[in-house]
Amino acid sequence: MSKVSGNAVDVNLLRRIFRYVTPYRNIFTKSIILTVLLAVLAPLRPWLIQYTVDSYILLNDFRGLVNMSFIMVALLLIQTFVQYYHTFYTNVLGQSVIKDLRITVFNHISALRLKYFDRTPIGQLITRTVSDLETIADIFSEGLIVIVGDILQVVAIIAVMLYTDWELTLIVLIPMPLLMAASYVFKEAIKSAFQEVRTQVANLNTFLQEHISGIRIIQYFARENQEMRKFKKINARHRDAHIQSNWYYSIFFPVVEIISALSIGLLVWYGSKLIIANDISPGVVVSFIMYINMLFRPIRELADKFNTLQMGMVGAERIFKVLDTDEKTENKGILKPETLKGDIEFRNVWFAYNDENWVLKDISFHVKPGETLALVGATGAGKSSVINILNRFYEINKGSVLVDGKDIRDYELNYLRSHIATVLQDVFLFSDTIGNNINLNNQEISREDLVRAAMEVGAHQFIEKLPGGYDYDVMERGATLSAGQAQLISFIRAMVYDPQILVLDEATASVDTETEELIRHAINKLMEGRTSIVIAHRLSTIQNADKIIVLDRGEIREMGSHQQLLKFNGYYKRLYDLQFNSEGIAKA
Ligand SMILES: Nc1ncnc2c1ncn2[C@@H]1O[C@H](COP(=O)(O)OP(=O)(O)O)[C@@H](O)[C@H]1O
Ligand SMILES: [Mg+2]
User: Fold this and answer.
1) What is the residue with the minimal CA distance to atom 10 of ligand 1?
2) How far does residue 16's CA lie from ligand 1's centre (Å)?
3) Residue nearest to atom 9 of ligand 1 (CA)
């Protein structure tokens, strides 16, 4: 958890937040006008009451009293309306600003390169785009504008009090420094209490998110009781944090009551003296009681509102930090040729995810248009990394990667990526319809295209059998589909985009023989007429490849066709005997 830094009012930060207010200038202006209006209207009622007491009640003027009552009811109505619009507009303002900001943040995050996500927990990014943003809305609805309004109101009330009777005002305000000191102590205490609450809420969220996502593991291994004990502990800390913050309130509010009683005591004591001496009218004392109440409420709440403001500033700081991370894949290329042939060449490519921990060392190969290259090798050999590089998901450190003889960095990034279809090992499905999961909401792809691609891949039949067919709603992460079915859908995804280059991280997920057959067929269909780089586990895929590369700890051990490599009687032959022989016999 990052700590609360700096002041509640950081001018640069505020200025940056206010840039997002610009489109809502009108609402902002209205909010400010209403704030001032509320502050000015506040002292009016006590003043009217004072006038009523002195000019009508004490003089037994019933008609005048009734008239004044009507005026006060009218004033109350006006105040109610102003208050309503004030609350409404400040909330509209806050929500509008964070709506824009949230879209900006999401857009920004979407464009960040994968390296950033390797280091940033997903939960953290979700917190940024949801709760941290919420605190910014509060700057407008509960923080800044309301604080300004409260201060204005305090100033207006004290001004009217001074104007009415400065001597009495000064006497009555004697306990005020006490109140300010108490508020300050409270503000500091509640700040750390709130931070603790936020930390505990985050812990609770993380625990729940992970354990609900991983519920299968917990149940398979019967870990419910142990996890429950952990959960109880986290909950207890969560409760304690809340109790702590509430405890400060339960001390602070009575203290404020005592201080305000002190003020009223002073008022009664000194005010009566003045009345007896005929220096002031009784109406003044009545109105001062109301003024004092009106003074104490905003000052009491100011501490709270400063915290809200501060939370908003912290939230803003965190969000701007995300917006300031400039970890995007450089997109300076301009090449967008009409057609790609699909010629791929790696020239002395060196690559590391971090520093100089080379994951790929001096890799060179050439795949001609329409050919298939199979990558084999042990787990961690660097097969997936080869794929990640071609799409520029990660940038190489040395050497060059060429497509149709041109460096991939010279192509426009989206152009490059849309001409390379990548099917990854673990299929991710969104909670959406099958259709939208295939075309990824690209409206240019028609239902006919979908069906044609599905038929080619051989998945049309199984989709048709689902309730609703292509409109069947896939639950989160495709939980309602089998691994094989999900894989087939990812194949249609690639097929429907009809790319020149196909990149496939073949899943090893064991599937039943029928699905296995479907997948084998689908892979063959997908590779037809395309340049393919396939991380192959299935013997059939490997055998039919034009070229096979055996990767070992980031280096090319052997390269050639299936027959060549078998004859070579080296690493591939051993791997083949070890991994594929039994399967080969079974399938032969
Ligand atoms: N995102 C990543 N960040 C850092 N290291 C990674 C990342 N992905 C993979 N690696 C490392 O790179 C090496 C090669 O991984 P990978 O290309 O996925 O191997 P393969 O696909 O052959 O199993 C492994 O040592 C792995 O730990
Ligand atoms: Mg891999």
Assistant:
1) 353
2) 40
3) 385
Q: How far is the CA of 431 from the centre of ligand 1 (A)?
A: 28
| Whole-number Å distance between alpha carbons of 40 and 33 | 11
Q: Report if residue 432 sits inside a domain.
A: yes
pLDDT bucket at 314, cuts 50 / 70 / 90 = confident
Q: Which residue type does 197 have?
A: V
Ligand 2 centroid to residue 113 C-alpha, Å:
19
Quote the pTM value: 0.78
Same domain, 317 and 440: no
Give the bridge partners for 503, in sequence order: 422, 533
Do 425 and 524 lie in one domain? The reply is yes
Nearest-atom number in ligand 1 for the CA of 387 is: 17
* Whether residue 317 is found in the same domain as residue 433: no
Domain check: are 319 and 376 in the same one?
no
For the chain, what is the domain count?
A: 2
- Which pLDDT belongs to residue 478? 63
Residue 363 within a domain: no
For the record, the structure tokens of 438 come out as 């295939």
- Closest atom of ligand 1 to 383 CA is 22
The rounded distance, in Å, linking the Cα atoms of 227 and 207 is: 10
**How far apart, in whole angstroms, are the C-alpha atoms of residue 111 and residue 117?**
11
Q: Is the predicted pLDDT of residue 272 greater than 90, yes or no?
A: yes
Residue 374 Cα to ligand 2 midpoint, Å, equals 13
Mean pLDDT of the chain: 88
* Whole-number Å distance between alpha carbons of 156 and 44: 10
Identify the nearest ligand to the CA of 385 by its number: 1
Owning domain of residue 36: 11-324
- Contact by Cβ (8 Å): 94, 136: yes
Task: Ligand 1, residue 382: give the atom nearest the CA.
Answer: 17
302 and 426, same domain (yes or no):
no
